Amino acid sequence: MRSILMLFNIQKSGNFGMLIRTANALGVAEICIAGRREFATHGNHQTRLATKFRHFYRPIDALNYYREAGFDLVAVEIGENALNLNAHEFSRDSVFLMGNETTGVNSELLQMCDYAVYIPQFGAGASLNVNVAAGIVLNAFNARRKDHNAITGAKFSLD
Predict the structure, then answer these.
(1) Residue 123 half-sphere exposure toward CB, CA atoms < 13 A
(2) Cα 98 from chain centroid?
(3) Residues whose CB falls within 8 Å of the CB of residue 17, separated by 6 or more in sequence, listed in order
(4) Which has the closest alpha carbon to 134: 8, 46, 1?
(5) Phi, psi of 93 (to 5 degrees)
(6) Which of 20, 87, 98, 133 has the CA that lies 20 to 30 A from 115?
(7) 48, pLDDT greater than 80
(8) What pLDDT digit, counting tens, does each position of 102-148 carry?
(9) Which value, to the nearest 10 degrees, does the dihedral of the CA atoms of residues 48, 51, 56, 59 take?
(10) What is the pTM of this model?
(11) In the prediction, which pLDDT does 13 show?
């Protein structure tokens, strides 16, 4: 199964570099950036060079593109109708829509998605950093994969 990380209205430039590194480590096929075209990539540790990007000015166009390509559209958003990530098994190629650090995924985009998932939390915080949330969701998506990179010593081999 393939995953796409779609970023819409991410405001903090430091989050972009970390999201690129996380997405690359967790095997996303590409990162889709909806909205602004320029973004800082500090913190990506050269993974930007090995990561495919696609850009759409309007997030609606991006969601329609991936729907036509056969992907499930999955919002990562806390909500009453969202599915518990820990209880959900992914079975299809999926686009994971990550929204703004403060406002999340807006209702118009949420309605366009096939479903939403939330990450159960147990502490005092109201939500997680967008990069942390993306990492948790992408790891859950890959939970049944067996084709990860080999380990050599205390690092993953890149061969």
Answers:
(1) 4
(2) 6
(3) 40, 41, 42, 43, 44, 48
(4) 8
(5) -55, 140
(6) 20
(7) no
(8) 889 999 999 999 999 999 999 998 889 999 999 999 999 999 988 88
(9) -100
(10) 0.90
(11) 75
